[in-house]
Amino acid sequence: MNIFKYIMGAVIVVAVSGCSQGPSEAEAKKIVQDRMSGCNNLALVKFKKTNGIPFGDGSNIYDVSVAYTIEAKAFGDLKKIYDETQPRLIELKRKQAEAGAAIIAMNSRINSPEFAVEDEATKLKVNEEYQALTKFNSDLYPQIDKLERAGRDESAMKIFACPLVVPVMVLGLDKDATKDFEETIRMRKTDNGWMASQ
């Protein structure tokens, strides 16, 4: 009986060891790192394999789901730009909201029956105020756009100078100059281990 158990155990071990376990986290991580080869401005700071599903017969191809974080190392000044521009940006957006509300209110007044019977001097003054407010509101848009884009153009140039096959969403760096990604990588088993499937 003991010999039978030993033989059966050995068979099970051999069978299990012969089964493909799929790509490891390290092998999936290497694919992302290889994409970033030569990209001195970027660093892979977090990486996690979240799932792995056999593709087809499951023996040689796997779809591996991963989550990772990329840090734009060379853009430490982005946070400084962010901190400098945000208070001004918030203030301009507040003024924009107030101007928008005032324009709606004045527009309602101008188109009301009561306004039609106002004297000409009052009508002229209100219309001048309305035009000035409309211009003020329009002038806010390019200022807000400029602040929202602060630092991004230079960052984009540095990123695109790098042979990186990561989604362009990397331009959505947060104020800490990092970006989180989730993707599924198709991997193929080769004589040299698991590689990105072409």
Report what the structure shows.
The protein is of the alpha+beta class and 198 residues long. Helix content is 53%, strand content 21%. The chain has helices at residues 2-18, 25-35, 77-110, 113-116, 120-148, 152-160, and strands spanning 42-54, 61-72, 178-190, 193-196. The chain has a 4-stranded antiparallel sheet, covered by helices on one side. A hairpin with a 2-residue loop joins strand 3 (178-190) and strand 4. Helix 3 runs antiparallel to helix 5 (120-148). The longest helix is centred in the middle third of the chain and has 34 residues, at 77-110.
Kindly list the characteristics that best describe this protein.
four-stranded antiparallel β-sheet, 4 strands, 198 residues, 6 helices, single chain, 53% helix, alpha+beta
Q: Could you give the topology of this structure?
A:
Elements: H1 2-18, H2 25-35, E1 42-54, E2 61-72, H3 77-110, H4 113-116, H5 120-148, H6 152-160, E3 178-190, E4 193-196
Antiparallel strand pairs: 1-2, 2-3, 3-4
Helix pairs in contact: 3-5
What's this, in brief?
The chain has 198 residues and is an alpha+beta fold. It has helices at 2-18, 25-35, 77-110, 113-116, 120-148, 152-160; strands at 42-54, 61-72, 178-190, 193-196.
The total count of strands amounts to 4
Task: Pick out the low-confidence regions.
Answer: 4-19, 164-171
How are helices and strands ordered from N to C?
HHEEHHHHEE
Helix count?
6
User: What is the 3D form?
Assistant: elongated
Question: Into which percent range does the helicity of residues fall?
Answer: 40-55%
- Residue-averaged pLDDT, rounded? 77
Radius of gyration: 30 Å
Give the CA-CA distance, first to last residue.
51 Å
Task: Describe the main β-sheet briefly.
Answer: 4 strands, antiparallel
Instruction: Work out the strand percent.
Output: 15-25%
Strand ordering within the main sheet:
1-2-3-4
Summing up helix and strand content along with how strands pair, one would put the structural category as: alpha+beta
